[in-house]
């Protein structure tokens, strides 16, 4: 059971272990500088974290951490669209019989407590609270029965979306990948801290304190094991890969009147047992 995070120090990115009120600098004790590098370094990483945490003499108060995303640069980040029945309905789509999948690139996300950026060419900047699944074990053609063995842990994601660009074509890539338009964090929570498949966790998105989305992760059309099994039919999943598992109803574009994020707003996504991801909104300079 562990909570890990990436943070910025004067030396560069560092890997930390969150305790109650502080963070142990694991990189200072010889571990890699990022979570994805740790996951890629071998299956015994949990034991090495415990050894490094006992050996490290560098601790930082949690309140002073400059957060980086839990995964900074992965081989693949696959996002899932329309994965809650209520969100499919508000978006005027039939619930899909096969997952709607698209890429989300690491340049499009920032860490907790960092500003997410509304591009100057659009004012239709929407929130999407989601659960992120982080792969810890490689596999191709993974069976649904063994899929959860490939999960290292979970985090929180805000799949910030530029709605007018998302609908310019049948493909959603442009609207989902503006630089620094989404967020990820604050921490990685190991899978053994949560129910199998992270089912039954409350998920809530708040904009300036007002609840905009509220659901449970057991309402996903395609659960974590199913997503892993289907995605791995196409390509090998490797440690550090991320699956961004979809958002529930309540997005701003579906409201009447529509609600979009603007500079100065604060958007929070909270998932039970994982944490609160909070970001202010800023205009592109």
TrEMBL record:
Any one GO molecular function term: metal ion binding
Its keywords, alphabetically, are: Metal-binding
Q: Where is the Fumarylacetoacetase-like C-terminal domain?
A: 77-281
- What is one GO biological process annotated to this record? carboxylic acid metabolic process
Is the Metal-binding keyword given for this protein? yes
The keyword Cell membrane belongs to this UniProt entry's keyword annotation: no
Q: Which domain of life is it from?
A: Bacteria
One Pfam family cited in the UniProt record for this chain: FAA_hydrolase
Please give the InterPro entries that the UniProt record associates with this protein.
Answer: FAH, Fumarylacetoacetase-like_C, Fumarylacetoacetase_C_sf
Family of the protein in this entry: Belongs to the FAH family.
In Swiss-Prot or TrEMBL terms, this protein is called 2-keto-4-pentenoate hydratase
